[in-house]
Amino acid sequence: MRFGPFLRLEELAPDVALIQALKERWDPECHAFLFPWGHMVPTLEDVVRITGLHVDGQAVTGTTYTSYQEPVERLLGLAVRGERSSLVQWTVLQASLGVASARRQTGEGQAEYLDRMTKDARAAMVEEEGDAADRDLRRFLTLVIGKLILGTKGDPVGCRCLPLLEDLSSVGNYAWGAALLAHLFDSLGTSSRETGVAGFFPLLQVWAYYHLPSLGREVARRRGAVPLLQRWWFCRDERSLRRQVTLIHDTLDTVPFGHVRWTPYVGEDDATQPWVERGRPYFGRDIWLHCFNTVVPLHHRLVARTLGLHQAVVEFPTRQRSWERPGRSFRGI
Predict the structure, then answer these.
(1) Cβ distance 44 to 279 under 8 Å?
(2) Is 285 helix (H, G, I), strand (E, B) or coil?
(3) Cα(57)–Cα(178) distance, integer angstroms
(4) Cβ atoms of residues 185 and 289 within 8 Å
(5) Considering the entire predicted model, what is its pTM?
(6) Per-residue pLDDT tens over the stretch 39-78
(7) φ and ψ at residue 136, rounded to 5 degrees
(8) Which GO terms describe its biological process (predicted)?
(9) From CA 287, how far away is CA 300, in angstroms rounded?
(10) 3-class DSSP state for residue 129?
(11) What angle do CA 311, 312, 315 make, to 5 degrees?
């Protein structure tokens, strides 16, 4: 189903300060980060290389419902949280897969925990046949898609993907990587006063590690590993969240233009990453990203420098005095 590279990803601890600082630089009108040197935005190439998810295939779209009770009962044999809800409790899904008692052990990393839980689920599923096996597979895919790829805040798992899981043979035909990016863009557009984002936040972290190395938020762990998320650890910082966010903004305001990496993947061995070759026709294109009833534009023209082209430095109007640093609240041009 083309989820193999994504499911093999290891844990990346969340850098809440970095994610929050990037969120405060997000312009929802142009769907891009706005920095003193111009616009930047994660692209489909970033998604493919960092996560291993495919961006080629059918758009993740279709009918959405006011209530998912009927498809959840029919396809998963479970119940949603409320009459007009698209959420299922994480613990309920765990229990349905026979891993309700698979609690995380002391000192056990997220990768080890998920690997152990997957093995336990596989052992429980191998005894099933026919419709029961299909039901368990849909439960597992709902967990992967609704909690990781199109994740929500908190424990509940989204099940908007269920209509696309009815025909299990076609699940791998969808562009789940493009849906991940659309969902992330939509979450970044929420109020900057809300800490964190819904969606697959490690993409933002590793994107910043590659494009903005001057921030110094990363530690190399496994050179040459693919997908690229496997190559990094988060460098922990014991300072307060607000202090970290302020320091990240200060660095972004003063980073030399030449220290921004616009083409960080030059020299990568694409022969070991077939998912990159399949997605290459979609790299560098202005395109609409689909995630069910969310459709957002990916504007490459705003980030021309990312493609090795010229992008003029952006001048931001300010009401502050000449010796003061420009404020951070601004809109795209």
Answers:
(1) yes
(2) coil
(3) 10
(4) yes
(5) 0.85
(6) 899 999 999 999 999 999 999 998 888 889 999 999 999 9
(7) -65, -35
(8) meristem maintenance
(9) 8
(10) coil
(11) 140
